[in-house]
Amino acid sequence: MKKLLILxxxxxxxxLKTNAQIPNNGFEIWEDYPDPDNSNNVxxxxxxxxxLLPNSPSTYSFSIEKNMDSYPAGTGQYSMIIKPDTANxxxxxxxxxxxxxxxxxxxxxxxxxxxxxxxxxxxxxxKYLPENGDSMRVVCNFYKDGVVIGGFDYNSPQIVPNWTxxxxxxxxxxxxxxxxxxxxxxxxxxxxxxxxxxYVDNLSFDISITSVGNTDNLLPQKFSLYQNYPNxxxxxTSIEFTLPKPEYVKLKVYNILGKEVATLVxxxxxxGNHTYQFDGSNLASGVYYYQLEAGDFMEVKKMILLK
Length: 307
What we know:
By secondary structure, the protein is an all-beta fold. It contains 1 helix and 21 strands. The strands form 5 sheets. Strands 3, 6, 7, 9, 10, 12 and 13 form a 7-stranded antiparallel beta sheet that branches. The longest helix is centred in the N-terminal third of the chain and has 8 residues, at about 1-10. It is elongated.
């Protein structure tokens, strides 16, 4: 009965997968970007990201600049600088689109890239050198069928002269799994001043990037159990969790009556990301619960088998 009570009182829908799917998140791939109104003006921008151009096509100015520095060390060659040019009406902003959608506004920000899980937080490395009290701003929206279902709007006026790791929590207002997301980075919140600069590198969901090509260093920061995917499922589904340290793990599946129907793992696992498949071929349609125990951590989630 105690186990049954736990199963029914700690159901919190979370996310599937970690640390992926932000396009060109280290800003290592750059490409030419001609001004649509003046082909003589050709800029450099990160692939899958775009900045703002001056209102006058006769002026050469762009809100994004390639920085010949990457952080942390060993993660590449480049990072991105975002800067305004108020004289030429260029706002200090960068967007996670390959080109700007028409009629963009803060009230109607469209999706930019696909995603199929619910991240807990966004990590990024940054430096911020504001002028006259400017505040940097980071906006991230998550969508389901074009409707915003979660995200954050973060801003800070703090001067950050050296590369620093920033973690921004993500919240959702529905239990849906998003299908797309958008990230916007700016040097300002409301007004802005020339000279403010925001340096950004190595964005990632849920896991901070410490090196490239060494997955042992892409370590989770916390114990996490994610929503199975797909859900509902027939007949199999993936269950993923993360361990910030080696731990003895038990991952079990129960039916709605609290009866154990499967043990997916019962052994000590190394730190990192782990994924296990659950096959419900021999089970009836209905609601099931999967429970992760790892040291003092325990969490339960609901899944639905439909045949």
